[in-house]
Queue: 2 jobs
Job 1
Amino acid sequence: MAKVLLLQGNQACAEGAIAAGVTFFAGYPITPSTEIAEIMAKRLPEVGGKFIQMEDEIAGIGAIVGASLTGKKVLTATSGPGFSLKQEFIGYATIAEVPIVIANVQRVGPSTGQPTAPAQGDMMQARWGTHGDHPVIALTPASVPECFTLTIKAYELSEKYRMPVLLMLDEIIGHMREKIEIPDYDTIEKPVRKGPRVGPSEFKAYEPDSDGVPPMADFGTGYRYHVTGLVHDETGFPNGSAAATEKLLKRLHDKVERDIDKITMYEEYKLDDAEIAIVTYGGTARSAYAAIDMAREEGIKVGMFRLISVWPFPEKEIAQLAEKVKVIVVPELNYGQMVGEVKKAAEGKVPVKPMSKYDSEPISPKELLAFVKNL
Amino acid sequence: MEKLIEKYYRPRLPHIWCPGCGNGIVTSSIIKAIDKLGLDQDKTVIVSGIGCSSRASGYLNFDTVHSLHGRALPVATGIKLADPELNVIVITGDGDGTAIGGNHFIHTARRNINLTVILFNNNIYGMTGGQYSPLTPTDSKATTAPYGTLERAFDIAELAKAAGATYVARGTAFHANMLVDVIAKGISHDGFSLIEAVTQCPIYFGRQNKKGDASTMLKTQRDHAVTVEAAKKLSPEQLEGKFKIGVLHQSEAPEYTKQYQGIIDRAQKGAK
């Protein structure tokens, strides 16, 4: 039965994972993401799933990679320093095409930084944190209900494209409490992994379908295949040739790029007649709604383009936005990260103004309003 | 009878190991142990890290993971906990398992999860060309220790035991039949098992340290290994410079995945 609850973003993320059919969590405690682990420790055994607190952040993501190979939907959660430690396995899961979901509840960095204060300073680490060229899918919820729905969405994308999906919360969203209507989990469609359509003797573990994604066999079902972080060919075994290297890297990128319109998610708020566009995401978007409403009362034509999927970056949509408005403002809780992407996509057609805040406090609606009025 | 090589090896030979390397002997000992126990090939998973020994996973006909440097144990833990019906065997080396993977090693032992770890100990980083590892003996030459190593080596069997491993054994490439036996016992043991397999690296360890060719290094294993039974009759002076082989430690403790099933049963009873 559907129910109405008062939940924290971290709680909604954990419940979204349960609703999506997650049965395995491994992680390590770290502020401000710890509630996700705590809730999973209690909830997973209730639904027959498994929780394990590992010896470190690396082991947390390593264990979910292993569990995913047995066909389970898996989650780990972390923040700042832990996100740095997880980068190596994010690259592994990308090249070995193992579906995993990582929630990163952002706090002030670098290093230990400000563990309990919000930031949006990991946006570029989400894109480029693991070494080498690789595609990325990252989502940024801006409300408690969206933590729930985007977590489910993360599994849909992760299973479909066989890759890590990053849930980029920030401390504002992770710890904010809000009303949320939660549907009966039985009514939620569980994302399904595409399995092999041929028997073990014909199976090539990394031979893609026309969508660029190879069907994935569960360990223990007789397919006996090899998983490696080395460059490999469609057999799954290492292949050091230039041709195999180019082919694999291209396919990993293509499977995401060809579907970018399906993956891209955004919200437009009072943007129809806007002369000023605020492009933002996550917790900062909360202040933008209020600032826009206040500005509109004063007759300022401002609206918001809220990024929901931040990676792959919606270049096409931002380019179109740059044709429509006179100026773009990018408020974010960092020294200026996504603003660079917005500038790149706007191609100089319109001024793009960063509004960077990195003092550990959120951007208030009044601050944003004042910034807009001073343009 | 189907030959072991046809049943258990993928048609991917020759392997990448150097002439005289002992890794082939250790790998075949694992296969013989699996065959001896009659494990279901479809329900057996081999997980390795990165390094010379960790390349073994790619040659073996099971579900196999060649994971990250030092990280075989977390991946294996995830597989075993997610599906306890699977037999999970871990192949690692001295650098992979005890340096970069050292933290995972002690904690996986502490948890007593039913994994069987075969640690190929060749006393050196071979894949990168001969740097010293935590199991390189003191005052050895390595490319990163041109004046000799200062550090003391771990006794990995003692470390495993102290960390809570419930089965600890050691074998050598020379004593291949005994190695099969201690690996088979480790796989049968319900808990965390460590088998240290002493193997020769004539190219990157032997050459720098004037240990002779592969056969000389195998003879050195023969001459310095003392079975656990024989060691009982020897004095500490007589054991100086020797190492014990056989089952070094075995104890009973609750196995992690079985204990976790108890948690599920309790949580589900509470929820209803």
Job 2
Amino acid sequence: MQAAGPEEAGLEREEAGEVARLISYAAILAVSIFLFFDARGLPTSRWEVLGAGAFPQLVFGLLSALSGLAIVGSLRKLSLAGASGFAAAAAGWLRRRYLVPVIAACFGGYLLAIPQVGFSVATFVFLLATQLVLAPRRWTSFLLALVVALLFSFGLNALFAEVFNVFLPRGA
Amino acid sequence: MLDAFLSGSGQVFAPDTLLYMLLGSIAGIVAAAIPGFTVTMAIVLTLPLTFAMDPLQGIAVMLAVYVGGYTGGLISAALLGIPGTPSAVATTFDAFPMARAGEPGRALSLGIWASFFGTVLSTVVLVLAAPPLALFAVRLGPWEYFSLIVFALTIVASLVGRSVLRGLIAGAIGLAISTVGPDPIMGRPRFDFGIEMLAPGLSFLIVLIGIFAISQLLSEVEDARSVRSGIALSTKDIEFRTWAVMREVLMRPVNLVRSSVVGVLVGALPGAGGSIANLIAYDQAKRGSKTPEKFGSGTPEGVVASEAGNSATAGGGLIPMISLGIPGSAVDAILMASLMVHGISVGPRLILDNADLVYGMFVAMVVSSFMMLLVCVVSMRAFLRVTEIPKWLIVPAVIVCCVVGSYALNNRVTDLYLLGFIGLAGYALRALDYPLAPLVLGVILGPIAETNLRRALMTDADWSLFLTRPVSLLLLIAAALSIAWVLWKHRKTTKNGEVSSP
């Protein structure tokens, strides 16, 4: 199989991006239609013409119309061939940015750990882990990461407690 | 007025406020000097530190970060050719060639002085324009206010990003986010689906930190190679020639004033901040120059135009925020939110009810620009090292700062989960090329729009008043025209593309 040239690859990426946007428009349309009907159930008031649900209906109605228009525009731009290559292009996109899901997962774990083990410990582990994932493999990097992790976990906790009287979570 | 001015000045010139402002100025310059880190992120990170301060002290510190941030972007623009912030894009056009031609110190000093004069000139316009506009605005009814917000959102959507439709969708998503939680008139719960996290509504500041900071930080780690390396920079031979360059900047009064005026006007438009102003000011300076062919090769005219233009948006953006309660940019929205955190309602009555605060802000703007100048002149050489800090060290530490800031707002762990969700959603929107500024402005303008719409119809149930009251009609026509203009421009560009393509 002949490899695609840079121009062709760029075009494929552009088409894959449009498919991703089309999916996002469809998701926005579905959510806004659901919330539009949900807002109709919100109570009205005898004191005013509009109730609590009127403004949300206006907003979700507008959002539905805009995303509908965007879907039409997107469908006109897309070709069947471009759409069929979407899965491979999306996987390639994600592979090139492999650090993003890694850091996002670390971040999610960190947020869940804060109420359990407290801010200082959770932050120390998160910082050390993410910096070691991101840093070049050198002893100086490891030492620097250790210092920054200590400073921004236990140090930041002490700063907020002593100076700003804000007490960060201490854990269960 | 004099009382308020003296009271505001007294608070700004208090030693502790000046010290915090100095630290803020340094933080702003440092943050914006790091390529990829914007002024908005610097302000977002400063915000939680100001919760414990008095309102004016807090806002003065944030203004110091703001003014410092606009200058910090210049460092990497001039020395590396990478704009530290989007507002320094045009600075790279001439400051970088000048630096490469052996005059990096001159390029930096030109930018610093142009930024200083740009900020001071924009503050003068702010002082002159905001009070009379506020006096006019207090006479506006809820009909005009609702129409004003419609206009503001359409302008934001049409100015930011590559697609007006995605801009409008982003603005509408912002409005939709603002409808979660108790409604602003009767306090009835909406769209919480029994989830504790959603019951109090989605806090504007959490949305802001998630959308701007977390999503930006995630996008900073996209390229594994750039994350692992810092940028080495030789700073030994840089000669700044500060005072000679000051004269050089002042010898270009027309360019300086024109670029500052462009900055003020662009800054005053909702959504159009320094990132647009620097390009327009540069373009205008090129058109007005006797030697336009020198632009792009390292002419001082280009550096002055770009830096005066982007710095002047600071004062310009505060005009609609102070006089109308409509933020001119995401940064102004954060400043507005910080006042709201302190229980100060922002709107046309701000200047009438809290005159000392507003005059204090004017004074703080001028003090901030002097502070930025002082800090840059005294310790510019040290700031140059900032560009060498690798991202692997900064990104995780800044994520932690975002977490602390979000928690400190309400001391709620559920806010942290919200931050996580919104951060990921923000990254997805950023990756899909949705502009984020309209979304953030939508969140802050949503409750104001809803309150005014419902108040208008409580006063008089007649919908046609939106079209028959002259100011309201004018604003709605302006909103329709801004959309029509963008559509026309888009069609013209598409047609030209079709003609030129083979």
